[in-house]
């Protein structure tokens, strides 16, 4: 779609003063999909030259905001970490064409802050943190679960930029389980739930997205029972937090989130039992 109100596109490598009507341009798959009457100038990030994915010395993974879904998918196939399959599962949750995969960016998906954003699901479930860059050059870090505050809402300040998302090494070592459901065979996610078990201390995390207006990540020191998990979701997600649009009513989304959460709990519990049985000299830790 032509953005008829945009008068100028500037290269982000050229320093310029931020002004009303400016907007960051990443892949542009959302930006050019509908009118943007508030925009007058786009600051293009495509030539910044940021390394799409980088493994840091501490074992964590840094994902540049300009990393495309195609680049993330290709990289994940070669990663020798337990959580690697989750990356492809979340990439596939886009249900988008190869053209979108090659243009849409991880940062754009987070900054749109749509409940069904699968990169929000991925990075929130893996306890990721966002590096934000202000116009004056200062930076701050915000957890992904705190970056998105509601449907279409995020904590970015005027002119602030999402530079990257970092996933800690400990999260990459987690065993994960993924569930997604839609009202339609190829529809937008109505609920997307991810579970993760930390191999170091046996802790369990459940992340609920798509069904809710923002990501909810619940953490348990030990894998919960079915009743404990259900009660924790009920305490954490208020009635107003269940998303409501044409892709699913709140009551249906709530029902599916509970159902998928229990499936994940059982899957990860069953996966843990053989591992514990094979470990020599390991007693009952529960």
Account of the 3D structure:
The chain is of the alpha+beta class and 286 residues long. It folds into 3 domains: 8-43, no CATH class; 53-170, Uridine Diphospho-n-acetylenolpyruvylglucosamine Reductase, domain 3, CATH 3.30.465.10; 171-277, CO dehydrogenase flavoprotein, C-terminal domain (Enolase-like, domain 1, 2-Layer Sandwich). Helices cover 30% and strands 23% of the residues. The chain has 9 helices and 14 strands. It has helices at 69-77, 84-92, 98-101, 106-112, 118-125, 144-147, 169-172, 226-236, 250-278, and strands at 8-11, 22-25, 41-44, 53-55, 61-64, 129-133, 139-143, 148-150, 153-154, 161-167, 175-181, 191-197, 204-209, 216-220. Strand 6 (129-133) and strand 7 form a beta hairpin. It is globular. 35% of the residues are buried. InterPro entries: Diverse_Substr_Oxidored, FAD-bd_PCMH, FAD-bd_PCMH-like_sf, FAD-bd_PCMH_sub2, Mopterin_DH_FAD-bd.
Could you name the key traits of this structure?
286 residues; alpha+beta; Enolase-like, domain 1; 3 domains; 14 strands; 23% strand
